[in-house]
Design goal:
Layout lengths: L7 E11 L5 E12 L19 E12 L6 E12 L2 E14 L3 E13 L7 E13 L4 E10 L4 E13 L2 E11 L6 E11 L5
Antiparallel strand pairs: 1-2, 2-3, 3-4, 4-5, 5-6, 6-7, 7-8, 8-9, 9-10, 10-11
Length: 202
């Protein structure tokens, strides 16, 4: 800040193994410092908040693997264990992608977090599941559909975007978005948006 007090800091060491088929494996170590300007609930679950002015020195390890991206089917995975504010967090994620050329691709990302904090702070586990479909009907018309289940936010989101590129760098977008309650699939909010971007070369 203006008084030369450190507000955040990160040191990291990593080593990457890059294979001939373009897949890679990485090992990472991180050491962090965080200063809180505002009170904060690390789990975003309505529990006890860490007080403003708190300082945290944390460290953690992670491993990542990405398979050959040139293949029609490829995947990525990672695991992480680290100190998290005044507790600990374990994380695992998996990403899958399948390309059905020349029309598009389907992908799925699954993320799991286990946050363990001391009393009186909340400990919790939650999932994030995100499938996505990208389709190219022609060279100028594209459809993207994104679906996400967020256990932490207790929300299901659907987002669909139709794009028409009627001129170079000029597009028409029609976007539909809706949020649902996971238990009943009742609608929370919905919106239909029209957007036009036009490249004016003067």
């Amino acid at each position: 800040d203006l008084d030369w007090k450190i507000t955040d800091q990160n040191y990291s060491i990593s080593y990457d193994f890059i294979f001939n088929n373009r897949s890679y494996f990485a090992l990472n170590y991180n050491y962090n410092y965080t200063y809180l300007f505002f009170s904060f609930d690390p789990t975003n679950s309505g529990g006890e908040r860490l007080p403003v002015g708190s300082e945290f020195y944390t460290q953690g390890f992670s491993m990542n693997y990405n398979s050959d991206p040139r293949r029609l089917f490829n995947f990525s995975t990672s695991v992480r264990t680290e100190q998290y504010f005044n507790g600990n967090r374990n994380n695992a994620s998996l990403g899958l992608t399948y390309r059905f050329q020349p029309y598009g691709q389907f992908s799925l990302v699954v993320d799991y977090n286990d946050i363990m904090l001391p009393e009186p702070y909340n400990s919790t586990t939650f999932w994030l599941v995100s499938p996505r479909l990208d389709v190219a009907f022609t060279r100028d018309i594209f459809l993207t559909t994104f679906f996400q289940y967020n256990q932490q936010a207790d929300n299901i989101n659907l987002n669909t975007r139709l794009q028409w590129r009627f001129k170079p760098v000029s597009d028409l977008f029609i976007v539909y978005s809706e949020n649902y309650f996971p238990e009943t699939l009742g609608s929370k909010t919905r919106a239909l948006v029209l957007k036009i971007s036009y490249w004016l070369n003067v």
